[in-house]
Structure formats: C-alpha cells, structure tokens
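Marked as duplicate of an earlier ticket. Keeping the data here for the record.
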Amino acid sequence: MAHKLLEGKTGIIFGALDELSIAWKVAEKAKEEGANFILTNYALALRMGKINELAEKTGAEVVTADATNMDDINALLDVAEQKYGKIDFVLHSIGMSPNVRKKRAYTDLNYDWLHKTYDISAMSFHKILQALYKRDMMNEWGSVLALSYMAAQRTFSEYNDMAEAKAILESIARSFGYFYGKEKKVRVNTISQSPTPTTAGKGVAGFDKMLNYGEKMSPLGNATADECADYCVMMFSDYTRKVTMQNLFHDGGFSMVGISGDILEGFNG
C-alpha cells in the first residue's frame, strides 16, 4: 500500500539492470510513493539489461552514463538539472569486480583489475557525490544512498576484493556525509543488505550457501530486494531527515548474531 512518502520528490537511480536488481525494485517503489526520477547505467548494461521496460513502467527517462567518468556524470546531471532543477534523492547501486568475474583468488589478485573494482564499486560514489556537491544539485534534506554488504566488516572468504570496495564505500559515506550535512543539509548513508539473489550477487562463488547461511543466522530471515526497496524509500523520505553518515544494517539481525540455534543444530555430536 502506497503512502505517497515521496510525493513531489525527484532523483536519480544508478544501477538498475533487470527485475532482480535492488535498484529496479527501488525504482518501482519510489514511483508508487509519488517520486519522479532518471534511470541510469553504463552503455553495455543498458544493452544487456531490461531498463527500457522499467522506464516504460515508471515513466522515467533513461540516460546512459559511466559512473566512473566525470564527463558522463556531469552530462547526466545536466539532464537532471534541466528536467528537475535540484533533486531530492540518489541511489548508488553499482558494484563489479573483474577479479571475481574471472575467478582470481584473493591471494592472487590482478592489481589492474583491483583498481577497476575500486573505481567502479567505490570511487564512483565519491565522484557522484563530488559532482552533486560542486553543482549544488541536491535540495536541503536530500538523501544519497549506496548499497553495501557485511563483508566490509567481516571476512567472507569468497567475497574477494569486493570486501575492500564496500569498506571504502562506507568510509566515503561517513567522510562526505560530514561535509554535505554541515554545509548543504544533505544526508549520505549506506545500507548493508542481506545477501540478495540479484544478477550480480549470484556471480559470487558459493552464493547459494551464503544465502542459506544468512537465512539460518538471521532471527528475521534474510531481507529481500523488495524489503530493501521499502527501506530505501523510507531513507529518501522526510521521516529520516536526521539520519546521516551511517552504515545501516538491513539484514534481519544477521550482523548482531554470533551463532544461531539453527546453525548449532547443523553440527553433529
């Protein structure tokens, strides 16, 4: 049931690929709640994904942009500024590791690929924030979110160099959030989501086992993509105006559990 929490608000959603994407779900929920927005992704993702279907469903404009390229980011913001003036929310749902895709072990990383992981998955967040900040593109009490994962704090053996990328992402939210909040009254947060069977997530080795483990460890079970979208909408809304610089765990309690009864029952003897 929609409550029009985002009535009159405008924004940009980075990273929707297909109906499994959290960004896709956020776009659907944001539209239900009254928002208007631009959808954006890089050229190959637009060709491979189904973003035009989402655009038709939500009435959104699609703008091609590589979030690692400042010229592309500024061109995207030109479109947003012409369309909306200042905006109210931004979602960064971007992450990719060539080392993971090419199955390089963490103890045998290709460092050129590592730099690309950082650039795509973390530095892009800083680039977007910096462009928004310098252009004064966000309305007061606007909200910028990025999606993270618990591997920024704990070791998940198969998560590889994405763990550091998520740690950098969360640090950027804290550091940029200070300046953006103090000088522009804009909120910056990350959401640490449960393992979610998105197209990208399922590319991590052992993902199904991670999903099952998370379900057994979490008192409330894994948070779904739809539930994460609901949380993002709340974070875009005026009900969370004083929440900033936080890494917000949206994981059914997983992050606070040492070991659960369900896990213990799996051991014999």
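See parent ticket for discussion. DSSP finds ten helices and seven strands in the chain.
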